[in-house]
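Category: protein sequence paired with discrete backbone structure
Discipline: computational structural biology
Format: plain text, a pair of labelled lines
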Amino acid sequence: MNFDLLVHEAWPAYEQRVHEGWVLRYAGGVTKRANSVLALTIPQDLDGAIEAAEEFYREREQRCVFSLGPNAAPGLEDELARRGYEPVDPTIIMAGTSLSDFLDGATVGYGRGDSQVRIEGRPWAGWLETWWAVDGRFTSEIEVAERICTGVPAWYAAYEEDGVAVAVGRGVPQGDTLGIYCMATLPQARRRGLARRVLRALIRHSGTKSAYLVTTAPNQAAQALYRSEGFEAAGSYHYRVR
């Protein structure tokens, strides 16, 4: 799987410009993923390409950020480091490739519907409020975040109690795999297995045998959960920020 492209397609910036094979992405500054350079090719003029990227973000009053994943252009990391770009936000890519077999062997949750997990084709107000309360990074740009989420078809799942979404997730169908994003649980609802139920509901709803997700490298608890559900580390990426 080309995880660089899968992540790019599942979390689309609403403004994109291609320059010598690089995709310059902008979405109001909300998340580095949608506001960074996806550089998978080696341009004929590396210096010129970097300068074009810097100008693109300067015009939008944003710092220039490069996403460096498994398929990043060779030599780009060293050149960015030489220019003073700092590495930030190391992220782990985890994938499960035989999930239907794993689901068949599970004793809870996979084999039947979960009446407390609601799944819709668009995010509703309660879903958005819960996700952004956990993952909003102290910004007020929830409308921009919603625009990013709804840029591609996806399913939105929430474990609800008394009509309130307390754990949420987003599943993006991408051919024969499912991209899982926006996993978030309110602090008061943690350590109850609710994220697991949301994850299982999305996988069951998709019907795919494979899925992938991303989680920050320091989040060992999330990685342990995903490993227990049949996911293993499959790659990593990070950013270089000027």
Q: What stands out?
A: The first strand starts at residue 15 and ends at 19. The two ends are 29 Å apart (CA to CA). Helices lie at 3-10, 46-59, 76-82, 99-105, 125-135, 142-149, 194-206, 220-228.
